[in-house]
Amino acid sequence: MTLLKLSRVALSFCMSCLLLSLAENTFAADVKPYRITMVVFRGCEEACEGFKSYWTNRKIPVEIEVLDAKTDIKRLPEFVKHVKATKPDLLVTWGTTVSLQMLGTVDNVDPAKHVTDIPSLFMIASTPVGSKLVKSLNAPGRNVTGTLYIVPVATQLSTARLYMPFKRVGYISNSTEDNSKIVQQELELAQFDFNFDLVAVNVPLNAAGKPDAASLPALIDELAKNKIDLLYFAPDTFLLLNRDVVTKEAVKRKIPVLAVSEAIVRESDALFGVVNRYSTVGQLTASKAEMILVKKIDPKNIPVVAPPGFTLIVNMGIAKELQKYPPLRVVKIADTVQ
C-alpha cells in the first residue's frame, strides 16, 4: 500500500470514528449495565485498557469483569466454569491460547469444556482462521467473532525491505504456542515471493514441559552463526515475556530485530516494528461488542477485521548502536523512539 493510499484509508477511518463519537447514546440513569467478562493472559495491558476506555467515551453503561490467567493455561478451565455460571452478556477473550481454550475451534467444540451459548469476541489472536477460531474472516460461522492485530506477513516483509535488504531471516519457534507454528508456516511460504531463506531454531522444553527461557542466548547464538540478516520476532507470549533477553542478545550479535508488537520496539531493543497499536485494537474490539450488545447483531454475521493501515516504529537508539539508520523514505513515514 502506498503512503498516499494509507493516508486516505487512515483519514477515512478517522472520519468514521469522529461520526461514531458524535452519535448520541441515550441511556436512562437506571438502565441495567451490560455485563462483559474479559479473560486475559498476562494482565490488563493496552488492548484491554483500550477496550475499557471505549465504553466511557461512548457513555454506554457496562460492568467489565477481568479474569487474568497470569500466563497459566491451567486456570482457563475454571474460567470456563465461571463464565457458564455467571452468564455475562458477552465474553471477550485475549490471545489465541485463551480463545481456543475458552471457545474451542469451529470443528471441535465440547459444550462441557467450552463456552458455546454466550456471544463471544476474541482479540489479539494472530491467525484466527489458521487456528480455526472462525471458518473465515467474512463469515465466522459460529457464535464468535473478533478482530485482527497482526499486520499481514507480506506487508511486514515489504516494509522491512524499505528499511534494509535481507537474504536470511531468523525465527525462534515455540512448539507450545499455536501462533508460533502458524506464523512460521506463513514465513516459509513467503520465502518464494520475497526471495529469502528462513532459518528456524526450536525452543527446548524444560522438565515441566514449558519453553526453557535459559536456552534463548544459545539459540540466538546459533542464528548468528547461520549469518541471518534479520530476526523476526514472532507473536508469541513466551517470547514477549522474555523480549528483553531476546532483543538484547540479538543486538550483542549485531542482529536487527523486526517486531510484530510495538512494546518490543518501545520497551525493549527491537530495531523496528510493523504493527497495529494494541490500544486501537482494543477500541475496535469494543466497537464490535457494541454491535452485539446494543445493536443486537449476531456475532456470526460480523466479519473479523483489523484496524486500517499500520504503524512503522523505529528505535533510533538501537539504529545508532547497530549502525543501521533508516533511509529517508522510511523516516518520512515512521514513528521514532529513542
Features:
12 strands; 5-stranded parallel β-sheet; alpha/beta; globular; 338 residues
Q: What does this 3D model show about the protein?
A:
The chain has 338 residues and is an alpha/beta fold. Helices cover 41% and strands 17% of the residues. The protein has helices at residues 3-22, 46-58, 76-86, 96-103, 153-163, 178-194, 216-225, 237-241, 243-252, 262-266, 278-293, 316-322, 328-331; strands at 34-40, 62-68, 90-94, 120-123, 144-146, 168-173, 197-202, 230-233, 257-259, 272-275, 311-315, 335-337. The longest helix is centred in the N-terminal third of the chain and has 20 residues, at 3-22. It is globular, with a radius of gyration of 20 Å. Mean pLDDT is 90; it is low at 1-23.
